[in-house]
Model the fold of this input.
Amino acid sequence: MKIYEALRWASSFLLERNLEEPAGEWLLRHHTGKDRSNLLASMHDVLEEPIWIAFRSDVQLLATGVPVQHIIGTEEFYGRTFQVNKDVLIPRPETEELVELLLTKMPQAPLSILDIGTGSGAIAISLKLERPDCEVTALDLSEDALSVAKQNALKLGADVSFKQGDLFAPVSGETFDVIVSNPPYIPETDVNTLATQVRDYEPHSALFAGKDGLVIYRRLAEAMPRFVKENALIGLEFGVGQGIEIKTLFSRAFPFATVDICYDINGKDRMLAIYGDLRS
Done:
């Protein structure tokens, strides 16, 4: 079995089952230890039998619904490799755009940053590594998620302070220059519309938030004014189509601030940016 033959088999297997075709390449790169360019350059090399057997088994495992990221144990985010497992949400490309939005709007000065619901730590760690001058605190209700985030911070060399608790509880009495959150926002009634890989393998506490998906946003909007410094910056991610309702919530919470709905690369409403006068 040559590498190109193994990839061709995996591609056919996955396409027949309406699964992501690139997952085959990701798995083969994982099993061979090759990056993409080296894999492509060695297409006619013979695949060792133990690697072929392990690769074939993992491709077949994908058909049961297990996310490829859980098989590999990692996901790429903002140019870095993060460990992931069943205890954290797999970082999405859309969230990279939230990080980019904040980096674009943050002033060039040492800032205090708070990430609420950090999960794997992808947002907090990326911000710290892109802006080492900033002090970053990351919160999560789940101790298991924080364990993953701490491992990622250690591996990537990011000095982030992690605290366990519900929303702002671990930082009571503190204020921040930047607050960011990608909270759960899927309505509980949508559970059966999700792909098996999401519904059965990612933590529901990081996915669902009440009947309309806005439960956490309401809590954030109510509490957040007490935790921002003057002229702070807030960045939030939300589900497509939720922008108007969430903008209304935060416009009421910050009546003198600028509250902008921001769109992702596909032109979908995905983020909220709040800045200006947040303390009046």
The longest strand covers residues 228-237.
